Amino acid sequence: MDVMAEQATRPQPRRSLLKFAGLAFALFLAGCGGMIPKGHGPGTQAPPPPKQTGPVGALPEDRERQRVALLVPLTGPNAAVGQSIANAANLAILDTGGRKVRITTYDTNAGAAAAAQRAVAEGNRLFLGPLLADDVRVVAPVARQSGVPVIAFSNDATVAGNGVYLMGFTPNQSIDRVVRYARSRGATRFAALAPTGLYGRSASTAMIRAVESSGGKMLALETYDRAPQSIKAATQKLTGEADFDALLIADGGRIAVQIVPLVRKGGDVAAHIMGTELWNAEPGLAAQPALNGAWFASVSDGLYRQLAAKYRARFGKAPYRLASLGYDAVLLTVRIAADWKIGDRFPAQRLTDADGFSGVDGAFRFGDNGIAERALEVRQIEPGGIVVASPAAKSFGQ
Fold this sequence. Notes:
Elements: H1 12-30, E1 66-72, H2 79-96, E2 101-107, H3 112-121, E3 127-128, H4 133-145, E4 150-152, E5 164-166, H5 171-184, E6 189-195, H6 198-213, E7 217-224, H7 228-241, E8 246-249, H8 253-265, E9 272-274, E10 295-298, H9 302-315, H10 323-337, E11 357-359, E12 362-366, E13 372-374, E14 377-382, E15 385-390
Parallel strand pairs: 1-2, 1-3, 3-4, 4-5, 6-7, 6-8, 8-9
Antiparallel strand pairs: 10-14, 11-12, 12-13, 14-15
């Protein structure tokens, strides 16, 4: 389903990656009060565009900046999300200066493979995106053949690796984080309800592994197909067969609101309710009495709220939550571009620096499997709002 560490002594250059990215974002925060980025206001003159030497319609020749392709849907059912990511990516270029990076956006809706082929033909040496897992699958071979790394926005772990890096928010990490928090609060007996389909299967596997690795006991796991009768039947079966003290609902908050009263009616009155990263994108959860006291793990929203305010000021509307992926992908690219020689391939080995990067969504780093490991916080839903129950680490040295 798409869209819907102990500190070790390491060389100084690696530590600087995280610090630089954080500095770039700090510069962005300093400019949050206005719509016009520094250096682009009245009385300043933007640098002239590069001289175009190719045929009309071709990208202009650029010997000072690296070409980077942003692959997102700009038409079709996911166009609003894709445009939101593209807008945030452009904000990041403006906020950092982006003097060594040229971002060109390609619409994947008409055909992701064709968009990738065009991007390669036009000299792009790094792909940011695509958004959807199916698009990543067709873009990856095109990119791989040309030695172009892909930093995708999908949350489907099955498309990661072999030149593909995922920035999307995966359920595995949020589930592991909230389970470990529950264990620290005394929970030992766990159960889970998950929808059928790819996301549900991934969440179920992650739940079993998280409980086992944290020393808990997994008592029961039931699935449903999101129809009211299926949800009711799965919940009744679960509550009838297991005496658990913590329950994961691996679905959105709106489904959880339907499930929790059934759980309480089934006799599990005191069981702690846990959710996944999906809850972070849903407003109004604090207004749902059924979810009072529930926990879920997610990236922090502190810096994102500031990005959203600047986005609204510039574009006149609120961004989609995934817009932060576009902003942070550009921060990462600009940082690496400082040492990326014109004409060379993108230095993909830099993506797996152990100290990682930092941005709107906090600290993150790519593992050898290509999946972004993120520093997550645990939140608790209360009647007056959502509070941080356990803060995220500021860096991977914590």
